[in-house]
Amino acid sequence: MNLRSKRLNLFSSAVFYELSNLTEKRKQDGLPVFPLGIGSPDLPPPLHSIDVLREALLDPSSFSYQRTEGLTDFRACISRFMAAQYGVQVDPECEVLPLIGAQDGLSHITLALVDPGDIVLIPDPGYPIYEVAVHLAGATPYFYPLRGEHDFLPDWSMIPSSIAERAKLMILNFPGNPTTVVGSRRVFEEAIHFARLHKIAIIHDAAYIELQFDEHQTPSFLSVPGAKELGIELHSLSKTFNFAGARVAFAVGQQDMLEALRIVKSQVDYGIFMPIQKAAMATLDNDRGHHRSLRAMYQERRDQFLAPLHAAGWDIRIPEGTMFVFAHTFGHDSRTFARRLLEETGVVSVPGVGFGPSGEGYVRFAMVTSKDELSDIASQIAKKIDRLRNRQT
Ligand SMILES: Cc1ncc(COP(=O)(O)O)c(C=O)c1O
C-alpha cells in the first residue's frame, strides 16, 4: 500500500541524503568529520535574553496558546527595531507579522498568494524551501539564474515575457544563500521596476541582512521607494541573534500580503511560545549593536578559512555576506566533488546542485566553527587540493 502523497516526490532531498549517509558511515568508522554543511550558528544568543526566557518560563500564564499575530508588545518592538536599525517605518497593527522562523513565512506565503497555474520566480541557486513552497501551493516555479559570470545577480531582461505575464510572485534573497552576494539598492530598484511592470508581488528574504562584510551595506528592501506597495521582507533572529532553534522571525511590509499570510497561519499554528516572544523582544530592544561583533566574527572566520585555500590556488570568490563560502569545484560535478572532499578530508559541504540547477559546479561551506578550527580545516583541504582538482571519479 502506498501511503504517501504524490506531492512528496517533488521534495527530492537525494543530494543531502547521500552525503549525510556517507557522513554517518565515516563517524561509525571512527574517522574525523568536520561538519560545515548546515548553517546552524555555534554560539548562544545574547545572554540577558536567556535570563528573560528563564523568568518567563516560571510564569504559568506563559504556557497558554498564543495568537498568530503575536503579542501587541512584540509587534510594537519589531516596529521600533525596523525604524532604529533600517530607518523603515512599519505600522505594528497591520504591517508586522511575527513568524515561527522565516521558514514558516516562506513555506506558507505561497498558500496565501498563489494558485495552481501561477508562476513564482525563484532564485537559482537559492534556499531550497522557495521551490518546495511553490510546489506545496500547486503553482509552478521559474528559476531565474544567478550566475557567477553575472556576479550572481538577477538579469530581469532574460525572463521571457510569457513567463513574466503569468508570474504572480517573486522571491529575492540578499545577502544570498548560497551565493553570498549582498545585492544593492540598485538591484532592489530594478526588481521593483520589473515587478511593477508585470504586477508581481515580491518577498525579500533578509535572513542574513546583518551579515555583510567589508564595505558592504545593502539596506532593507523596504527602504527602497515602492517596495512597501508590492512587497514584504522577512527578518529572522536565527542568524543575527543566534536564536536558530528558538524559531522566531518576522515579516514586515505590504499589509494585504501580511493579512493573507496571517489567515493561512491562523489555521496551522497558535503563534510563538510566549517566553520566546519575550526573549526576542529583550534582544531586539537591547542588542541592536550585536550584529557588529557578529559581522566581525564571521568576516574573520571567512578570512581564516579562505587564506590557506587561496594560497593553494583555489580561487574562491570572496563572500560579501552570509555565514557561507560558495566555492567552485574545478569544473567537477558538485555531488562527486563534495563526496571526494568528505573522503579525502572529512569536511562536510553541501553540493551546489542541491540549491538548484545553476548551483552545479559549486559547493557551499558554512562557517560554523571557530576561526582557528576553520583555518586548520582549510589547511587540511589545501594539502589535498591537487587530488581534488584532478581526480576524475
Ligand atoms: C536564505 C534563508 N532564508 C531563511 C532561512 C530560515 O531561517 P529561519 O531559521 O528563520 O527559519 C534560512 C536558514 O538557513 C536561510 O538560509
From TrEMBL:
It comes from the Bacteria. Its EC number is 2.6.1.-. Its cofactor is pyridoxal 5'-phosphate. Keywords: Aminotransferase, Transferase. Residues 33-378 form the Aminotransferase class I/classII large domain. PROSITE patterns: AA_TRANSFER_CLASS_1 (PS00105). Gene3D superfamilies: Aspartate Aminotransferase, domain 1, Type I PLP-dependent aspartate aminotransferase-like (Major domain). It is an enzyme of class 2 (transferase). CDD domains: AAT_like. One of its GO terms (molecular function) is transaminase activity. Belongs to the class-I pyridoxal-phosphate-dependent aminotransferase family. This is Aminotransferase.
